[in-house]
From TrEMBL:
The keyword Membrane does not apply. This is DegV family protein with EDD domain. It comes from the Bacteria. One of its GO terms (molecular function) is lipid binding. Keywords: Lipid-binding. Pfam families: DegV (PF02645). It comes from Iodobacter fluviatilis.
Length: 314
């Protein structure tokens, strides 16, 4: 059986990993004051986006995901012919309409695919399952990477489904901005008062960084850390601690709002890389989704791992 994997461009995974596993990306369009950017997870274009954003400072952005009709057209024109079964994993549904659009499209696809496959002499039925990853950015990337790993191992559809269900309950993603300006600006535009003026002013003056955790479909601040480098050290040390205890899945994802080469030079990352190598865990590093950059600005760091023990930052 030919099993396909679809996700949206919020998913933080390296381009070479996406290509190797033939993962199909649903693009997201970013509208800004200086034009439109279509996020197809192109590394060079994404790095350029972050460079321009860093130079411009705080800016207004709007994101526009694929519509249900665009998703329907993609599947009926291509994917129902390329695959016999498809798993579609989206960014956390409480943060985006992508899950709803995919679910709506799936209902149409499953009632319209038969004549298309029959014309191509494909007599097997086509199946499509849409899942909310219950996470964002690096966390979403981890769930998708694990499904890709199981597909490569020729796991059954039921085994993959069971793993996804456990991953949505165990994957813990952490996100830390480098600067609070864009975070506060976008929050104000959306009517989110979680980053108020006083906390912004104090945080900026004292170099205090909030850490946001994405876990089981909820995003919430879980810590405030003095200093960006200290925060990175704590996040990577947290991942190493859970790695030593034993992870639910042998994958850790890291993403950065800019050129990932900045992260490879961090001592905390090198320690994590060595620990992953010792324990046979794949460590995936890439550019952070531009959707993340729109909301938290350039220079932020995200990390995700799957552990049955709920992580706590000191």
């Amino acid at each position: 059986m030919r099993i396909g994997l679809v996700t949206d461009s919020c998913c933080d995974l390296p381009r070479d990993f996406l290509d190797k596993h033939q993962i199909v990306i649903l693009p997201i369009t970013i509208h800004g004051s200086d034009g439109t950017f279509i996020d197809n997870r192109d590394p060079a274009a994404t790095r350029d986006f972050y460079r321009r954003q860093a130079a411009a400072g705080v800016a207004d952005f709007e994101s526009e995901p694929f519509s249900a009709e665009q998703i329907r057209e993609l599947f009926l024109s291509r994917l129902v012919l390329d695959f016999d079964a498809v798993f579609c994993l989206t960014v956390m549904q409480s943060r985006s309409q992508i899950f709803n659009h995919c679910s709506q499209a799936a209902r149409a696809i499953l009632t319209e695919y038969r004549p298309i496959r029959e014309q191509a002499s494909l007599n097997k039925p086509f199946t499509l399952r849409v899942f909310d990853s219950a996470n964002i950015f690096a966390g979403q990337g981890l769930v998708v990477a694990e499904v890709a790993r199981l597909i490569s191992l020729q796991a059954s559809n039921s085994e993959i489904t069971k793993h996804i269900e456990r991953l949505t309950q165990t994957t813990q993603g952490f996100l830390m901005p480098a600067d609070l300006g864009q975070l506060r600006h976008q929050a104000r535009r959306k009517g989110d008062k979680s980053v108020g003026f006083l906390s912004y002013a104090l945080g900026s003056a004292l170099d205090i960084k909030p850490v946001v955790r994405a876990y089981r479909g909820i995003t919430a601040p879980v810590a405030r850390i003095h200093g960006f480098n200290t925060g990175v050290e704590k996040l990577f040390s947290l991942a190493r601690a859970h790695l030593e205890r034993g992870l639910f899945a042998p994958t850790i994802c890291v993403s950065y709002g800019g050129d990932p080469a900045v992260v490879t030079d961090m001592p905390a990352y090198q320690k994590l890389k060595q620990a992953c190598k010792s324990h046979g865990v794949q460590l995936l590093l890439c550019e952070m989704s531009t959707t993340a950059g729109v909301n938290i600005g350039s220079g932020g760091v995200a990390i995700a791992f799957a552990s049955e023990i709920e992580a706590e930052l000191d």
